[in-house]
Amino acid sequence: MKKIKVLSYGLNQANFILPIYNALYEHNKALHFDINNFTDHGKKDIEPSNHWSKVNLDISFSLKEKVRAILYCFSNIFSIRIILNRYSHIGGDIIQVFISEIARLIISQRIKKRKYNIVHTHFVIGGKVGPLIDLPLETKLILTFWGSDLLRSGLQNDILLIRKALDRADVITVQNREMKEHILVKYGRGYEAKIKEGLFIIDPVIFKTIDKITHIKGKLDNFKKTLGITNGEKIVVIGHNANENNNHLKILEQFDIQYILRQNIKLVLPFTYGNPNKTEYKNKILIANPKIANQIHFIENFLSTEELGCLRVLTSVFIQMPISDAMSAAVLESFYTSTKIIAGCWLPYGKFRRLGLNYIEIDHFELLKDKLDLALKSTDIGPVGEIIKNNFFKDAVIPFWIKNYEYSE
């Protein structure tokens, strides 16, 4: 059986990509994945297997590579255009802009030399797709938008590279119709035929853990203690990581100490990843909210699967109001435990509602107390486990990826 060589480029976060690649390999044993800059977010035990390897094509450039790229850059009109565009829009050091373009050219050449059959890039921004825009035509290129890469404004230079990548792509994947429409509005309707709607595969382990942990009162009580819950406070989780785009400050400023004490709630902020300056950001939050600081708990260390299951089971309300998102795993896990969810109306969550997964929508931060009152008083949303299993687990999702990974020379 001839090997089909795949490069996974871009944002290679283990919990999103490995379930897809493992399932694809189960279907087609010819596939082998090189995963560039593999990220496992706190899990140190994920080692390569016989069907995937860790690579890093973005570091340790040789002098020979640099010289060749510099000579090519000065003779290539598109490279000069990229440099001038970036410098004119963001300013700064022209030397750094030039170095960035040299790096793009070197990485591009490295990828070509490896003669991949398929290149799949996750998170479509200029830095992730720039090296892929002139892949050989026999290489199948799949671009997967994750959400914030599409829904947040980008630099003009990014748009230049992204358009080139969209032109070159064989398949463009998104998680829902709203994201597809965003692409067509932002980049033009000429890409409509290439865009396919398909989900990531949800790892079932956390859901099995939730099913198990729900009935173990002792473990749940012990986890409450780690959150500083001593008086039966109801848990309200805000956001899913430490990134400032989760709008923690705007959310927290809506709550005063009298309201928090009257509702008997504990505000829990997951801060395990998403911000290299999370300590400074945590202090900023506490300084801005001194009167309610004792009612805020930050989760700063990565949780085990069992601990995460406890958090999901114990959470009364999940407030999700980031600048952008696609379909967060945290939201699905919260649906699974029948947690009440308050979500910004600007988020592309229409698919959830179409499937019968209902949540409370909010369009202004100032309405948050009213919406939280509603959530805390509302009745259970009912069992939704089968909806999630039938639409987001492997058996439902993998046919999409099998179809789009079809390859013939």
Can you describe this structure?
The protein is of the alpha/beta class and 409 residues long. It has 2 domains: 4-59 and 115-201 and 393-405, Glycogen Phosphorylase B (Rossmann fold); 204-392, Glycogen Phosphorylase B (Rossmann fold). Helices cover 46% and strands 15% of the residues. The protein has 19 helices and 13 strands. It has a 7-stranded parallel sheet with strand order 3-2-1-4-5-6-7, with helices on both faces. Strands 10-9-8-11-12-13 form a 6-stranded parallel sheet, with helices on both faces. α10 packs across α14. The longest helix is centred in the first third of the chain and has 21 residues, at 94-114. It starts with a strand and ends in a 5-residue tail after the last helix. The mean pLDDT is 92. This is Glycosyltransferase subfamily 4-like N-terminal domain-containing protein. GO terms for molecular function: glycosyltransferase activity.
Helix amount: 40-55%
Strand order of the largest sheet: 3-2-1-4-5-6-7
The separation of the N and C termini measures: 14 Å
CATH fold node name of the largest domain: Rossmann fold
Instruction: Based on Cα principal axes, name the global outline.
Output: globular
- Tell me, rounded to a whole number, the average pLDDT: 92
CATH architecture of the largest domain: 3-Layer(aba) Sandwich
Topology, number of strands: 13
What is the CATH superfamily of the largest domain? Answer: Glycogen Phosphorylase B
Q: What is the beta-strand fraction?
A: 15-25%
